[in-house]
Amino acid sequence: MKNTILSALLMLVVSFGAFAGNGTDNGEEKVSGYTKSNFNYQFNGAENVTWASSARFQKATFTKEGKTLTAFYNNQNELVGTTQVIQITELSPVAIKNLVKSYPNYQMGEIIKYSGNEEVYYVNLKNESKNFLVEITPDMNVQFFKTIK
Description:
The protein is 22% helix and 39% strand. By secondary structure, it is of the alpha+beta class. The longest helix is centred in the N-terminal third of the chain and has 13 residues, at 2-14.
């Protein structure tokens, strides 16, 4: 189940317009009051909150303590996880070393930190012919995750 949730979250984050392509109104009217209440409790002090919903998730994008985050809730109004775009300097030196060793000669794009049951990082790597995501696991191993079309 974890991989299914992670895949869905990443497709929503990485694919521009993913919500628009999945029957979303990108507004608040389809977001559950319970989800909003849970969000307000869990992210007290969040600012600039915008909501979107799809058949599988409700998503809040917001700012807290100067950082932009996205929180994903399932249809049972439970927080599934949060994502945040980070800079490479926020990765551990071990993770950076393993990334460069495993995938030399690739250009790094966006780095997404996923926080849920555990903290995992996803790095977009590309060259002239390939564009894909790698996953950096909690033990700092780097592994192929998904091709991006």
